[in-house]
Amino acid sequence: MILQIGGQEVGATSRQRIEQLAGRRLRSIGDGDGASLPGESASYEFLRFRCGTCGRRVRRIHIDERDLPRCPQGHGVLERES
Q1: What is the pLDDT of residue 28?
Q2: Distance between CA 74 and CA 63 in Å, rounded?
Q3: What is the pTM of this model?
Q4: Which residues, other chains included, contact 44 with Cβ-Cβ below 8 Å and sequence gap of 6+?
Q5: Residue ranges for the chain with pLDDT beneath 70
């Protein structure tokens, strides 16, 4: 492994040395980069929208009320499903 700071190579090490220093920690799906808690978030949900004209459905995890999702077929703003 090459260590860089600001794009400059400052050293090298091995995976084994990193494991010796930090201890071996197995990671699994959902663990991310360590900046967040492991597992699935309980505070997210899919928001489902449907076009009242053609029935086209889309899903989002976030919407901006100032810019609601629109039908890709040009039928206007989509309606939120419950």
Answers
A1: 62
A2: 19
A3: 0.48
A4: 61
A5: 23-42
